[in-house]
Write a structure and sequence with these properties.
The chain is mainly alpha-helical and about 180 residues long. Helix content is about 65%, strand content about 0%. A two-stranded antiparallel ribbon has the order 1-2. The longest helix has about 35 residues. The chain is elongated.
Length: about 180
């Protein structure tokens, strides 16, 4: 297909790639930080993980608000099933990008940890210290993260499929430096 669909705007692209960078950083920090057990104390990597989670929530909320007033460019050239799959994947990603950090935050609260946005903005505790449900949310957090990573892999695979196999402009709509950008 040679017809070029409408592109995302600069703010949408910045929010998309900003969230992507934060998720990459967050996953890396999650792998580096010590394993969490009863009695684990907050140290640098755990504090950074909590701060990145708070920043992800903030950026995703900004992205959702922006998207409410600046809808995604239409993809009328895609088959209906691909548009439906795309919408389902995007909505699921938005949900998990909010739910996973909130679950981790609740787990931190149940451990008595003080969470903040890089030490600047303290965050309230979501559950009481020692809360059983808060502890269980830590396990659900891990499942939510791996589910989110699977959806991200699907999202990336679909973009690469469109670029290399279908050879349409779906991927280029979100690339800031691609040809024909406005």
């Amino acid at each position: 297909m040679n017809s070029e669909p409408a592109r995302y705007g600069t703010v949408s692209m910045a929010l998309h790639w900003g969230v992507a960078a934060l998720i990459a950083a967050q996953f890396t920090v999650g792998l580096i930080m010590p394993e969490i057990h009863r009695g684990t104390k907050v140290e640098f990597w755990i504090g950074l993980h909590l701060s990145l989670g708070a920043l992800i929530i903030l950026l995703v909320l900004c992205r959702i608000a922006w998207r409410a007033f600046h809808p995604a460019p239409a993809l009328t050239t895609l088959p209906t099933w691909q548009r439906m799959a795309s919408h389902a994947t995007h909505h699921s990603l938005y949900a998990l990008l909010l739910v996973a950090p909130v679950l981790g935050w609740a787990n931190a609260s149940s451990r008595g940890w003080d969470a903040s946005l890089f030490g600047i903005l303290p965050l309230p505790r979501l559950v009481g210290e020692g809360s059983k449900i808060g502890n269980e949310m830590g396990d659900i957090h891990v499942v939510a993260v791996y589910t989110m990573l699977a959806l991200i892999a699907l999202h990336v695979a679909a973009a690469l499929y469109h670029y290399f196999v279908v050879r349409d402009q779906v991927l280029q709509r979100m690339l800031p430096l691609s040809r024909g950008s406005s």
